[in-house]
Inverse folding.
């Protein structure tokens, strides 16, 4: 139901998620398993997941904010652009960093931690930030092939 509506072009990802929730509620109603305890537990689990994501965003934002105040972003930009390598080699180094981080951190965490550092370097080297954003999104798909998250390949 969810994937069919996405691939069929009937609904966006968020709308399909809502359709999935309605489908689960209807299934539990038909099987007569829907009760207030089940609703309460599912809402608690949802709030725990949202809380973890918000703490991740808060922590990454605080880290990058302090890093920027200390001049770290400017230091790394000057360090990377001052290397005696052509810009493509520096870009490949960034891609290697993203690949290694992808095995340990989810793509949201990688984006929040690396984009404030990488985008000034990219613009300094003369590359288009939109192009780098597309390259970043393509690069974040590679770690999905890692064994711990291989089930995502089937959805």
């Amino acid at each position: 139901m969810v994937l069919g509506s996405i691939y069929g072009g009937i609904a966006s990802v968020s709308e399909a998620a809502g359709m999935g929730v309605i489908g689960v509620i209807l299934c539990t109603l038909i099987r007569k398993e829907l009760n207030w305890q089940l609703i309460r537990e599912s809402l608690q689990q949802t709030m725990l997941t949202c809380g973890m994501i918000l703490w991740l965003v808060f922590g990454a934002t605080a880290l990058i904010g302090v890093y920027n105040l200390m001049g770290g972003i400017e230091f790394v930009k000057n360090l990377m652009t001052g290397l005696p390598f052509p810009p493509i080699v520096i870009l490949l180094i960034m891609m290697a960093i993203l690949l290694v981080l992808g095995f340990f951190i989810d793509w949201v965490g990688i984006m929040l931690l690396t984009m404030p550092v990488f985008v000034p370097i990219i613009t300094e080297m003369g590359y288009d930030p939109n192009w780098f954003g597309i390259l970043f999104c393509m690069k974040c798909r590679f770690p999905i092939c890692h064994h711990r998250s291989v089930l995502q390949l089937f959805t």
Q: What stands out?
A: The mean pLDDT is 86. Residues 132 and 138 are 10 Å apart (CA to CA).
